[in-house]
Specification:
Two copies of one chain form a homodimer. Chain A has two domains: 4-150, PurM-like, N-terminal domain (60s Ribosomal Protein L30, Chain: A), CATH 3.30.1330.10; 157-322, PurM-like C-terminal domain (Phosphoribosyl-aminoimidazole Synthetase, Chain A, domain 2). Helix content of chain A is 29%, strand content 26%. The first copy, chain A, has nine helices and 13 strands. Chain A has helices at residues 4-16, 63-81, 96-99, 108-123, 174-183, 194-200, 206-214, 228-239, 265-271, and strands at residues 33-35, 41-51, 84-94, 127-135, 140-150, 165-169, 220-224, 242-246, 277-282, 293-294, 297-306, 311-314, 320-322. In chain A, helix 2 (63-81) packs parallel to helix 4 (108-123). Chain A is globular. Chains A and B meet through helix 1, strand 1, strand 2, helix 2 and strand 3 of A and helix 1, strand 1, strand 2, helix 2 and strand 3 of B. Strand 1 (33-35) of chain A pairs antiparallel with strand 2 (41-51) of chain B, so a sheet runs across the interface.
Amino acid sequence: MKAGEDKLVQRIVKALAPEGGPWLPLGVGDDAALLTPRRGYDTILTCDWFLEGTHFLPGKHPADSIGWKCLARALSDIAAMGGEPRCFLLSLALPGKLALKEKGRGTGWLDEFLDGLRRAARRFRCMLAGGDTTQRREILINVTVVGEVLAGRAVLRSGAKAGDRIFVSGTLGEAELGLQKLRQGARVSPRNDRALRKHLYPEPRLPLGQWLADRKLAGSMMDLSDGLSSDLPRLCAASAVGARIHVAQIPSPKVPLSASRRFDALSLALNGGDDYELLFTVSANNAPRIPHSFQGIALTEIGEVTREQRVVMAQQDGTTKPLLPRGWDPFRK
Amino acid sequence: MKAGEDKLVQRIVKALAPEGGPWLPLGVGDDAALLTPRRGYDTILTCDWFLEGTHFLPGKHPADSIGWKCLARALSDIAAMGGEPRCFLLSLALPGKLALKEKGRGTGWLDEFLDGLRRAARRFRCMLAGGDTTQRREILINVTVVGEVLAGRAVLRSGAKAGDRIFVSGTLGEAELGLQKLRQGARVSPRNDRALRKHLYPEPRLPLGQWLADRKLAGSMMDLSDGLSSDLPRLCAASAVGARIHVAQIPSPKVPLSASRRFDALSLALNGGDDYELLFTVSANNAPRIPHSFQGIALTEIGEVTREQRVVMAQQDGTTKPLLPRGWDPFRK
């Protein structure tokens, strides 16, 4: 007779089918996971909350998006260091009716969740190594990802220097636009809607991050999870520099005419969270080596690093104003 | 003007004062933590939920015990592999009033929590490397610990063989007795009460685990977190063996006479959770090499591994009965 928690763990293991192999001598089922580090590499560690009500709404977000995104957003931190993923730990707290199979009932949510998680794990080559489960009224998720990067090659937030050019990947604010559509109950499939797809199934920019790190092109880098206006000041603070960005250069989403009264493309691009694009700086010498796109993802120069420790935005009329942090902050009042 | 989350992170970093050094080139404050693995060692990874209402009661558990225990219980998994701790990631979700300092108000809980966590981090030499924070109505904690063990020397659950002797460290059921005292509002200081101390400030058996692994004495090992009756069958299942334990040999707590009508020492020892003692098997040849105590912690032989895949308990009259899993299971109905 198996206990309830053991049954849940078995369902997770079955769904994610962790493969053994030289990179993961011991998977789920022991007190802890074991990993043989690759010689000459540093280990990267990151973890992320993904909580019902705070980060997703079970009534609005499909279970397979919750599975995909809980891993994808943690992987984005690996991308931001220029690393490659190795394995992850899944901490999952669920209501009993979602966790346990009862004669065909109540299995839908967990199966769909695990399906989304499995697709992300395979797509980004990051295998389940362990985790923890418990019962809870609300769905609580925490994901720890372990990655690796050639020793000394990780790209930090602290490497920006005055005169460097500032770049971002992709289009900023799209995920926020997608969230707004979801909230308003837009009856549209993510297949046909770029913004919705970006919100539900973000793609961590792993190949781009690795390319920038391998070629030593990025002096500093971070991922955009809370929005440019909140994240750029963090990069500047870590590097003890400032920044000037140019309004006209910020890649903002196309807001459909029908929504243009509610959404302003620039505000979305500055303050929208959940984009998981990369923000990085490149020396003026190397800036011409950055292509306009990488594997289909636009790379855009949006400004430059300044000695003066302020973050400002140059308007189209030539005046500047401070960039205020208005991105996602769970403790905002 | 710092955002709320950045302020909270600063308070955590200040309290835990992560020290840099060759073992942790990059601490808190970047997208992820970086760690240089020691050559010739495997990396151990484990994570643990610690949730208000499920694992602790804020009205009953002192904040510094919550801080100590959230790390100590994850470290117990490192002990169970025979490893040594290196660093941890703290995921913390808190009500705003606990997280943010407001003119001297509301700082007590977080300061005490961080104080307990700091004491455990120093005691067990496990430094903060990163984490994630958010706001939440209830206190949610998830801790990931990274440890190391000499390559190939980790002790797994799967190594028990028929004929091996089964040992446990310490006294089983003490922590459960302590929890019952706490629930009943016992007005006693943990300084003067062994059971309460064990429940509030458990000591992961790290030196013992390392000693057993280094000398290749333990063929299999796990930590007792849910109770012997639930955990021993897990070790047996992983090793495809059974076990016979002897009632008379199980180290059970001294139940005060005043509580003896409510608590039965044997039930506490079999089914009580949160002990964080080690359960391990030793070949019959090596069993005499196991001392009666290690650094003041009793080591007790409680039975033997059997070929037949059942877990039974030999009574004092010589009869046996099945050991049913009655330890902690969050999904028990």
